[in-house]
Specification:
The protein contains 8 helices and no strands. The protein is mainly alpha-helical.
Length: 180
Amino acid sequence: MLTDYFAKMKGTTKSPPCVGASEIVWSWIGAFLGIGVVAFANFHLFQKQDVLLIIGSFGASAVLIYGAIKSPLAQPRNLIGGHVLSAIVGVAAYQLFYPQIWLAAAAAVATAIALMHATKTLHPPGGATALIAVIGGGKVHALGFLYAIIPAGGGALIMLLIALIVNNIPKSRRYPEFWF
């Protein structure tokens, strides 16, 4: 019985082949522009108003929407829905379970995953977005539920717009696979 359990961890397929140079270059261009625009806006426009536009989970979103564009997890519904829903869950968990940060963190991530599954908006960086709402510090906590709009929704929307432009420039790429 224990042998069968550990046998599951061997995997069932081989690693996929390496992507071509063109795919690597376009992924780099998309990620550079997507994160660059959000970071520029954050540090040159929003910071003056003491509002955030960039969060760490956008780095993982960039991997998906510029580097794994065919993945169901990278599609617009998942990107926007996953971040916004997870941000709401994270803020609620922080407000409900503070000062038990460990409990708020666990509840935020677990609940975000469950709700993303239930709403067909599963986007792995959403788990980080929920966690950031809990552990993000005073600036994030001061935003309250605005965190779901700016930075989570607004930053993700900017990255989506850039993904739509960049991912459709080369003939070999097409984005999105679906909207809803």
